[in-house]
């Protein structure tokens, strides 16, 4: 029996959440280690587990993988969520990179000062509704298929689903101008693996709160 | 006859430079369209830019955007991405490291003088304590010429670019890394790379005030 992948991070979404999403959507069970002190992080760095002394870390198939994109690409490739050829992979990569830029705004949001929060939500709403969501609405409309690329479930669909839910937490009505994305969200939510991940008790982490921000600042020593 | 890839960007390094490096190292000739302010609006209006941003590379009938997506495609197409998933994972990890390092350097010209000075010190520290030791160790552990799988890959080309870029900041940055020095020499002598390093190649010069002003104007920063 092969070992389950093991994820090391803090107990929160951060840069590990996309990895949790992808493994879960692929139906892969995994274990998690949650760091609570900076000393634990430094120790991992000292014993050579972290290539660049950074998290996330995912131990999988005998490798200690770091760097989100490297980890996600490996999982996508391994579980056939990366298209059937180079060109489909290119499309998936483009979509994922675009969504990742949008998710970056959400990732940084908890760390912005209180007076900037309202403006940042407006930026997230604007970028989502004017730059990113229109692209995927159009893609789905043009080919009329359930999935973004190659008429088949891929990493791009998982990433888009994660992004839609994350933006909706900040801007609840964000999908109001996007009927295809609304249908997409419903279909994705009903896929067995994703449905399971969206239920309480799954490895999915809650939205970041002050506790989470404090833990991140302490462990990663952000100024 | 296949068309040459066509690169759309400003006349300077920025996010397009790694793409120029990879194509050149792979021995692929390409064309460049240098963007002025009106061109960006035009590209946006005619739907050429998926997320309204450059770099954009026209290749194999696609209008590709997003630097990483473009680089992954080129690496895959020209057999610079390892022989299997695991080698690809190693290449991805190494490339993400050099991307982080070069990203810090690329941001410098746009920073105020005092911030810049502080960041140069940080970059030097990170290069010599976080990044270069990783690649020095990789080369030492297997004793081969290339980082992954005993074969030239995207990771090697990206590392060379990062080394040269960091040396522009601090010329003796490799002083504690004998294997990286040897790596730099070997890579620089590869025919395609040697050609790219010569004057008159598509390689762009380090950013100057002119370039910064152009970027600020075109991208409305």
Automatic annotation (TrEMBL), chain A:
Query: Which cellular component terms (GO) are annotated to the entry?
Result: cytosol
Keyword list (alphabetical) reads: Transferase
Q: What are the GO MF terms of this UniProt record? A: glutathione transferase activity
One GO biological process term: detoxification
**Which EC number(s) does the record attach to this protein?**
2.5.1.18
Q: What class of enzyme is it?
A: transferase
Where in this chain does the record put each GST C-terminal domain?
85-209
Residue stretches making up the GST N-terminal domain: 3-83
Q: Which PROSITE patterns match?
A: GST_CTER, GST_NTER
Can you tell me which family this protein belongs to? Belongs to the GST superfamily. Alpha family.
Q: What is this protein called?
A: glutathione transferase
Species annotation: Meleagris gallopavo (Wild turkey)
UniProtKB/TrEMBL annotation, chain B:
Domain GST C-terminal residues, every copy = 84-208
What region holds the GST N-terminal domain?
Answer: 3-82
Q: Name one GO molecular function term.
A: glutathione transferase activity
The catalytic activity of this protein is classed by the Enzyme Commission as 2.5.1.18
Coiled-coil features, chain-numbered ranges: none
User: Its domain of life?
Assistant: Eukaryota
Give the Pfam families listed for this entry.
GST_C_3, GST_N
Q: Which UniProt keywords apply?
A: Transferase
For the keyword Transferase, the answer is yes
UniProt key word Transferase: yes
GO BP field: glutathione metabolic process; xenobiotic metabolic process
Member of which family? Belongs to the GST superfamily. Alpha family.
PANTHER family listed in its UniProt record: GLUTATHIONE S-TRANSFERASE (PTHR11571), GLUTATHIONE S-TRANSFERASE A1 (PTHR11571:SF107)
| The protein's name | glutathione transferase
């Amino acid at each position: 029996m092969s070992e389950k992948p093991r994820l090391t991070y803090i107990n929160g979404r951060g840069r590990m959440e996309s990895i949790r999403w992808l493994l879960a959507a692929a139906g892969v069970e995994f274990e998690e280690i949650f760091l609570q002190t900076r000393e634990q992080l430094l120790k991992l760095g000292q014993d050579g587990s972290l290539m660049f002394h950074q998290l996330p870390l995912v131990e999988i198939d005998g490798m200690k993988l770091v760097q989100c994109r490297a980890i996600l690409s490996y999982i996508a490739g391994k579980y056939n969520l990366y298209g059937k050829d180079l060109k489909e992979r290119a499309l998936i990569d483009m979509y994922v990179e675009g969504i990742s830029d949008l998710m970056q705004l959400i990732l940084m949001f908890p760390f912005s000062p209180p007076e900037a929060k309202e403006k940042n939500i407006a930026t997230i709403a604007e970028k989502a509704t004017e730059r990113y969501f229109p692209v995927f609405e159009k893609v789905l409309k043009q080919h009329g298929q359930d999935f973004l690329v190659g008429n088949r479930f891929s990493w791009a669909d998982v990433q888009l689903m994660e992004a839609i839910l994350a933006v909706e937490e900040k801007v609840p009505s964000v999908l109001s101008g996007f009927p295809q994305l609304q249908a997409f969200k419903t279909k994705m939510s009903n896929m067995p693996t994703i449905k399971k991940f969206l239920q309480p008790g799954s490895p999915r982490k809650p939205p970041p709160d002050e506790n989470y921000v404090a833990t991140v600042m302490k462990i990663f020593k952000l100024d | 006859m296949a068309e040459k890839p066509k690169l759309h960007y400003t006349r300077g390094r920025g996010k397009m430079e790694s793409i120029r490096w990879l194509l050149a190292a792979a021995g692929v000739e390409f064309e460049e369209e240098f963007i002025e302010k009106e061109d960006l609006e035009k590209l946006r209006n005619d739907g050429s830019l998926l997320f309204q941003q450059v770099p954009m590379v026209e290749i194999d009938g696609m209008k590709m955007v997003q630097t990483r997506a473009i680089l992954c495609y080129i690496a895959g197409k020209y057999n610079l991405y390892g022989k299997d998933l695991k080698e690809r994972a190693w290449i991805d990890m190494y490339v993400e490291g050099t991307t982080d390092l070069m990203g810090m350097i690329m941001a410098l010209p746009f920073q105020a003088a005092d911030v810049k000075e502080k960041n140069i010190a940080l970059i030097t520290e990170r290069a010599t304590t976080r990044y270069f030791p990783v690649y020095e160790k990789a080369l030492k552990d297997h004793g081969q010429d290339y980082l992954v799988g005993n074969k030239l890959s995207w990771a090697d080309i990206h590392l060379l670019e990062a080394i040269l870029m960091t040396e522009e900041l601090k010329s003796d940055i490799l002083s504690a890394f004998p294997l990286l020095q040897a790596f730099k020499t070997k890579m620089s002598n590869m025919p395609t790379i040697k050609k790219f390093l010569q004057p008159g190649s598509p390689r762009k010069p380090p950013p100057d005030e002119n370039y910064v002003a152009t970027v600020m104007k075109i991208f409305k920063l």
